[in-house]
């Protein structure tokens, strides 16, 4: 039974945080670990902050078994600044300044728009099919893809074999939702606001031999080499977001790590897909089963385009029942349920029960 007033946030990010983490933040807000000041006012050069940021880095390393030859850095600017930082760092690896982008949704398309400013883009149109059918350019400086398309709810359940090309991955919305073999990548980047914390900090994991190069036009703040060389404090880091991320990483560790998150994600997403698939066309998930995201589940109601009146009624009723942020992305419409790490099985059971009930009421 829910506590009275218990609200579930199914938003695509910034997303739900673990309740225990929020309580910890509340407890420590005025006085961080007995030092008498808030983390919000603490210098990023102080020993307490350095201890905290090192702890967050070590947790990322431990939870993803990051090999020693990779740097883990925390930066500002979000995914959108990585869309520029990546080409600035890597597009000149080969003289042709040509790169391959696998475009499977809105975010990879946006990344292309930024990369275009720095070189030639080969867009590998793909429906997440077999990479052997992709038209990769052997002279590309790197291959770029987005592991989970937040807006359209499509997720790679494999790491593409790009034949030893430099591989860059936007892992924004499924980072630490499962174990990942980091050694297969050259660069991984992710915001914290989906699975590991709040908005404001972006985690970049980069193989150290990719630090050597950057275009001359690159700015210091976007250069991994500069940030890594200054322990993520070349400029003032997003201190509070890093603190929150540390708490969430600790929570992930205490709850079984990345492997446990993966198990839970499978159970949670299956609960919702089972309902859409058995609703005889009432709930329609537009994504092929093999490409479905375990993080973000989009569906229409009533017909393929979504019956506006039904969608509105669904959202209004869900809101009355304390389930928030189920509206699909503005470019897609319909409904979207985001089931990141902090969303519990009980939260999803509540949504599933509501979906079944809404369907039954419709059939009466
Ligand atoms: C997969 C993905 N990549 C990149 C971004 C862009 O992140 P930001 O809003 O921090 O620029 C988002 C944002 O939600 C995203 O979901």
Automatic annotation (TrEMBL):
Classification via Pfam families: Aminotran_5 (PF00266)
Pathway annotation from the record: Amino-acid biosynthesis; L-serine biosynthesis; L-serine from 3-phospho-D-glycerate: step 2/3
Keyword annotations of the record: Acetylation, Amino-acid biosynthesis, Aminotransferase, Phosphoprotein, Pyridoxal phosphate, Serine biosynthesis, Transferase
Enzyme class of the recorded protein, top EC level: transferase
InterPro entries: Aminotrans_V_dom, Aminotrans_V_PyrdxlP_BS, Pser_aminoTfrase, PyrdxlP-dep_Trfase, PyrdxlP-dep_Trfase_major, PyrdxlP-dep_Trfase_small
Assembly: Homodimer.
Protein name: Phosphoserine aminotransferase
